[in-house]
Write a structure and sequence with these properties.
elongated; 3 strands; 8 helices
């Protein structure tokens, strides 16, 4: 059985395109704001936002490719390009987060003056742009969208922190060490959350049994079908973290019941987003 279900990838591609152009526009604002205010938190976000733009472009392109149907070269289609996008995006952001740490930690011990008023303006703009992007990606199903969503949530936390920090620095100018301290906190948050997304994406690429697939319950449900004596071989893996593929070999007691047994197996499998099942009888 083969069912084409690429609607979530089409929607994901549209969402990522919107977020990419939003981020590209804001990227220019951050570069100007960082240079004008001399804020380490904003300067770090200049680097962060450039990595955002690149990773979103990669995610958008690969999500678009994932919508293509099967071909002789990719017989299961291109859905795994979505996961590839999540791996590249997560890895890229984690590397950039470590770079931010390397820049911010030395500034803890030799803080510099910043333009708190300018930080406040850039912080408000950052919060607006990033909130719109998070709203667009909220509820996305693909790992690609989730990787970018975590990235953008980190951005929101960062801009909230920068907003609060700018207000503090407007009244207490002797706590400039808080500027790099905020950058360090956000970088650690990104490493932790994108690290989890990276691990989940790699599990899909390594064909780990999907997390939402209860193997014991599935086996019991199949064995409970009238006419099935045993499960002789069984494999299930995910194409993109949403849709799965399965191969199943079962021993039956009556070859005349093949079609009825197939229908019941299909019905059980549909609960797990299994879009391709190969069933062999013995």
């Amino acid at each position: 059985m083969r069912i084409d279900t690429h609607h979530h990838h089409k929607k994901a591609s549209e969402n990522l395109a919107f977020v990419f152009f939003m981020n590209l526009t804001f990227n220019i604002i951050v570069i100007i704001g960082g240079l004008a205010t001399n804020s380490m938190a904003i300067l770090a976000d200049c680097i962060h936002d450039m990595s955002d733009t690149i990773s979103m472009a990669i995610a958008w392109i690969l999500e678009h490719v994932s919508q293509k149907g099967s071909s002789d070269t990719f017989s299961y289609g291109y859905q795994r390009f979505s996961i590839l996008g999540a791996v590249i995006t997560s890895t890229f952001v984690i590397v950039m987060a470590f770079f931010i740490l390397s820049e911010a930690i030395p500034r803890l011990f030799s803080p510099e003056g910043v333009d708190a008023g300018g930080m406040l303006i850039v912080g408000i703009l950052g919060l607006v742009f990033k909130s719109i992007s998070v709203w667009r990606l909220h509820g996305g199903e693909t790992f690609n969208e989730k990787a970018i969503l975590y990235h953008l949530l980190g951005d929101i936390f960062e801009w909230v922190a920068i907003l609060i920090l700018s207000l503090i620095l407007m009244f207490w100018t002797d706590v400039t060490f808080l500027d790099p301290f905020v950058s360090i906190g956000i970088a650690i948050w990104l490493i932790f959350n994108l690290g989890r997304t990276l691990i989940k994406s790699l599990e899909v690429l390594l064909q780990k049994t999907p997390d939402n697939f209860d193997v014991d319950y599935f086996r019991q449900s199949i064995l409970a079908i009238d006419g099935i004596e045993d499960i002789e071989d069984f494999h299930v893996w995910s194409l993109d973290g949403i849709d799965s593929v399965m191969t199943l070999k079962v021993a039956i007691d009556n070859w005349n019941n093949q079609e009825k047994i197939k229908e019941e197996i299909y019905s059980i499998s549909n609960e797990y987003h299994v879009l391709d099942i190969t069933i062999e009888f013995d």
